[in-house]
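Worked example 3. Consider a protein that binds iron/sulfur cluster.
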Amino acid sequence: MIPPRLGEASLRDRTRVALADPVLRPRTARAVDRFASHRVESLARLDDPGALRDAARRVRASVLSDLPALLERFADRLLAHGAHVHWAHDATEANAAVTGIARGGRVVKSKSMVSEEIGLGPALEHAGCDVVETDLGEWIVQLAGEPPSHIIAPALHHDRDTIGELFDREADGGGVDREPTALAALARERLRERFLAADVGITGANFGVAEAGAVVLVTNEGNGRLVTSLPPVHVVVMGMERLTADWQQVDLLLGMLTRAATGQSLTSYVSVTGGPRAIDDDAGPAELHVVIVDNGRSAMLGTELHDMLACIRCGACLNVCPVFRQIGGHAYGSTYPGPMGSVLTPTLDAAVPGAGEVADASTLCGACNEVCPVGIPLTDLLLVQRRAAAVDAPWTSRAAWRAWSAAWSSPVRYRASITAATTARDASGLAALVPPGDRWAPGRAVPRPAARSFRARWKAGEI
Ligand code: SF4
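Given these inputs, the predicted complex is written out as structure tokens:
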């Protein structure tokens, strides 16, 4: 079943769908635990991971403070190398630029979250292109007709059996063995044909390097290298904030990205591209286009959400989030799930009804803050989004919070409310029968107030 998206169902209903899936939770938990433990082991091998994290945070802050000048330098260098630079204010402009370049041709793509964000795949298909995702996880979700469920592991919710069922349709004359090597071999064979026949290769960018006019791409499967070098035209789609000033910054951030994402000191393939093929080059595209996408990012600069632009899309915050491990990525209904998605979605998808709701998909436990390799204060930013969403909350909800705030802002009223709760403790279960308790209580143990309050016990010298 294709999971409901933002605007098609409420967060509550999407969560209900996810929780009703008996295999989603164990699969998700197993995968994120593996990523999280690899990250911990990898950081333990460093002398001072805290110092590196501080340095990475400073680098991202300095880039964002100088972003317009760096973007200009980056574009100038690319143009000097013979590349084409396109500036896209929003998703529509970005998709128009790419579909105009692809002209209905055969397209191979490597994993790119910004292209998911702008809906590039459907836009290309609508424009008559034949589009194939070449990252293994992305190919799996493309065959399943689903969006990715994790920003670095798009098919994390699948196992070898469900992948095998999808691949059976691709195998000549019947089924494919469920062994991972057999599944990977089939994918390699099918995708290799597509690489060789492609007219256009589309990638994202992990980092742009302003001083060099170059784009850095990291992959673990080598598909990025084939996408960037085999087709005659290469299109890079990158978020405007994914810049660095120089190679030293790339050096630092690359290590932080791969350690936080998968626990690797360095990813298997790091590809760098800076222009079309030169006359004496043996390989490479004849044309390089770089589409720099704003799509709501510049509106975040200098606001309370500014720090979110420092994100390097490592996925570490998803892997430790107690909400993500229960509901998986699809329940968020948007391109970006987990804590980083709960901050980004209300801004990037602001026009979609219910976008602000995803900021509620957090316990505010702070685990995400601790693992973020660039020190983004995610829980503070989640509260910013919750405050913004509260403006549109139903009047009953706003009235209830106002009454609670008024009661607990005065010591006298606070004590009176505690006395009332303690006196009525036997009736506390009734709260689960009336709104809003009836929506909160299913699946939970309703807490019962203690027989005697902390203050009463303190006064009596019992504590
Ligand atoms: S917010 Fe931090 S931890 Fe989460 S994806 Fe971005 S960089 Fe990684």
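Take a moment to read the result before moving on. The pocket of iron/sulfur cluster is lined by residues 260, 311-317, 340, 371-374, 376, 378 (CB under 6 Å). Residues 24-44 form the longest helix (21 residues).
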